[in-house]
Amino acid sequence: MRKFIWGLLVVVFAGGLVYLGLNSSKTLMTSDSGKITEKAFLADVKKSQAGQQEFANMVITTVLEKQYGGNVSKSDVQNAFDTQKAQYGDSFKSVLASNNTTEDQFKTNIKNNLIMTAAVKANYKVSDSQIKQAYKDYHQNTTVSMITAKDEDSANKAIADLKSGDSWATVYKKYTTDQTYAKQDGQIPVFDSTSTSVDSAVQDAAFKLEKTGDYTTSPVKGANGGFYVVQLDKTTNKPSLNSVRNKLTDKIVTTFLNDQNNNSKVQAIIGKILRQQNVDVKDAQLKNALNSYLTAGLSSKSK
């Protein structure tokens, strides 16, 4: 099953249950053996681990969106969505289905990830040595066009056609399975090495191309299982450290978030924010749902 490039933060945004909004005597099921009402169902959900986690997710989402949602624009979300969609081609819908999600839910997950990054960034101290190392590894803004091939064989055929002299536009129209950027013959938005929406394999391949018009001479296999042909359209000079400091910080924070060894530290940061916002759970059954967050970091100093 092909997974999304954008790593969902399961430590917080698991998503799924909508039943916590139910609290009536409406009948959900009848049978000769009895019935189940919304109220009875909710009571069971609240006691379950999944229900407790979903309540925690809802609280965290509400607080973080209020405090840090302003740092994430609709265009940020749409650009990330479009870039990822282009890398799945005509398999995008089936990938959504296999991951039990819809386009709207996927956009929400992207938004939540960006908000989480903003929240951690505001509460995580990035050292100068981390910034210097990130700058050393940094690759500047690059613009590429990309053929999202049906499979490896199709990618090889596209490369063979390019080598025989066919234009990029002709080969793109013949072999790509994605139409997101069809008007631009597959040219995706500019990106650099801090991008979280462009497949790392595509980035690596793009950064190795030297001249405008150069293309990959073997298929690029993405982390999502897709195959691509990448052409370099434009590159820029490496900017000064100070001009990209903010992007480097975002990259460091994203790496920090994606490392499962840091889950306890992430929980401590979330807990600090929840305590600052005076989160107080009123329902007795849900009283302990946020304990792992509200108590995280209290016994030791966190970053």
UniProtKB/TrEMBL annotation:
It holds the Pfam family Rotamase_2. Keywords: Cell membrane, Isomerase, Lipoprotein, Membrane, Palmitate, Rotamase, Signal. Gene3D superfamilies: 3.10.50.40. It is a lipid-anchor. One of its GO terms (molecular function) is isomerase activity. Its EC number is 5.2.1.8. Residues 126-245 form the PpiC domain. It is found in: Cell membrane. Belongs to the PrsA family. Plays a major role in protein secretion by helping the post-translocational extracellular folding of several secreted proteins. This is Foldase protein PrsA. It comes from Leuconostoc holzapfelii. The gene is prsA.
